[in-house]
Hints:
The chain is an all-alpha fold.
Amino acid sequence: MKKIIVLSLLATLAFACGPSSSDKGGSEPSAAAPKVDGEKVYKTYCVTCHGLYGDMGASGAFNLQTSALPVEERISVIANGRKAMTPFKDLLNEEKIKAVAEYTMTLKK
Ligand code: HEC
């Protein structure tokens, strides 16, 4: 039991010292194409409400085919949630949230 606590503490520390702590480290590829497959993230976490094509609308989910929300605001909706939509910031890292937000832009008709 003690071992588990120590391990999770170490994991937390390692995470805290991760790439997100260096604001202007210059090592983060900001403009580069995301390494994460946004489509995969979407199919794992988002289809239950938004559907494969973004237009399912379960639990009042917005239609992502007609959404005019800019990608920066999508990132914040995905990270922090809104009404019936659950926040994803504890589930997905920044990179994944960005990738999936960009993927939702491609669903637009
Ligand atoms: C539990 C169901 C649910 C899940 C899962 C879910 N959403 Fe949503 N989503 C919603 C609801 C409901 C809204 C509308 C919120 C409101 O009424 O303000 C919404 C709104 C949005 C919006 C804002 C659209 C707009 O035009 O304002 C975006 C973008 C979005 N979701 C993307 C995603 C992504 C990407 C995922 C997967 C990481 C996801 N959602 C997972 C239910 C969900």
